[in-house]
Amino acid sequence: MAVGTVVSRATGLFRNVLQAAALGTGLLASTYNTANVVPMSLYTLLIGGALNSVLVPQLVRARAEHTDGGRAFEQRLVTLVLSVLAVGTLLSVWAAPQLVAVYTPDTPATHAAFELTVVFARFLLPQIFFYGLFFILGQVLNARSKFGAMMWTPVLNNLVLIAMFGVYLGLLAGPDRIEDVTQGQIDLLGLATTGGIALQGLALIPFVRAAGFRFRPRFDWRGSGLGRSIAAARWTLLFVLANLAAMTVVTHYANAADQQLPTAGVGYTAYSYAQTVWMLPQSIVTVSLVTALLPRMSRAVAEDRLDDLRGDLSRALRASGVLIVPAAFFFLALGPQTAQLLFAHGSVDAAAAAPAGHMLQAFGLGLIPFSAQYLLLRGFYAFEDTRTPFWTALWISAVNVALATACHLLLPARWSVTGMAAACAVAYGIGLLVTALLLRRRIAGRLDGRRLCRTYGRLAVAAALAGAAGRLAAWACSGASVPTGWAPALALTAGGLTMALLFLVLARVLRIDELRRLPGLR
Fold this sequence. Notes:
By secondary structure, the protein is mostly helical. It has helices at 2-23, 27-65, 71-94, 96-103, 111-124, 127-143, 148-152, 154-171, 183-202, 205-210, 226-260, 268-302, 306-343, 350-363, 367-382, 387-410, 413-442, 449-477, 487-509.
């Protein structure tokens, strides 16, 4: 699973590098990126949140309790999900202008950017259905403890987009202004982007067939047990709404910064690129752990084995922390060099890549609570409790929106979105505290807190000292007489190696036992 996720994220990162080179980091890129975020947001709102948090435990329970091994329940569930998404996709394409207006303003001064975003959205909104196909088939596989295919098939989507942006860079002249974008460029970006998601979803069909699932449309939903899933999903819908509210506010404010400085790379595209890089360690480490652990934790709760649940959560937090904590300090220490190496190509120069680097630094330490809170929430989902995660999401979103609004109103456009990245980190810190307190109460007042605090404290000390040394090494190399394009690579290599070696030494000195359990470090 982890290897598949690494390959998927690596190809996704390379795709983003090509995308930045082709479209830049300014207002033009934000029209495409804003349109591209709408389908995933609507998919999550329609049914995606319920799939991830509610339906896996219920699929596991149905396979264990139903006399047919849960086969009929699966068929009804897949039919329901695809039906909802088919209707939702058609309605969203029809309402594209109204949906885009939520994310970016339509005024006389911004009308050209708004119209281009709407055009892109009409191409990209059919992704809603294919996202749903991918995730529901993936959850059918997960319930059977078949995890690999769902981790590997996103590589197909990334390869399609890599080829698309390669063609865009090689054959088409990239426009500097929104008004100069041609219909051919729009068609290429729109059709290939949606085609990649469609391929990703359809590629899972052979795997679910090999796992024994045979799809037969079943509309006999009444009295089938799906009512329990829908009731549980009510709170998940509110959870999704809380998260989407914060994301929508930040997107709107970030697009406003792009409108003020259309070529400076200070708005939504830079924020989304920085956030993508920031989330890579969590996507590789934590998501892989959670995907494997959720069915296991659900079985532990169903069999009233709270000690096993507690042990799984503690081990997952400590194991993930060994990689998440140093990654957070790496972003804090070397964010600018990372962004310059990744994004200062093609349409983006060093000055336009700098804001993304500062945003990556601002996100930095927030990776620790973001990853830990994501893991702890699965403890509630194992109990099929979707109400408590909603209240934690409400806390996080309220803090995020309040701080993002302050940044938008009080900071200049150059720094407002960087402030919003820091606001996100602070919000997840508060969210982690709230989540841990609530989960501790739910599992008999114990969460292995002392052991977790001891491990994370040692990891933070080792990573902070190593990060400081890595930053000094990168600074020392910044004045080296090398070709301009090699300067960030040299600085990042020197800083990263220094940090990694010193962290390993300090981790052994501080006796961080979890480090010895990683492959190759025993």
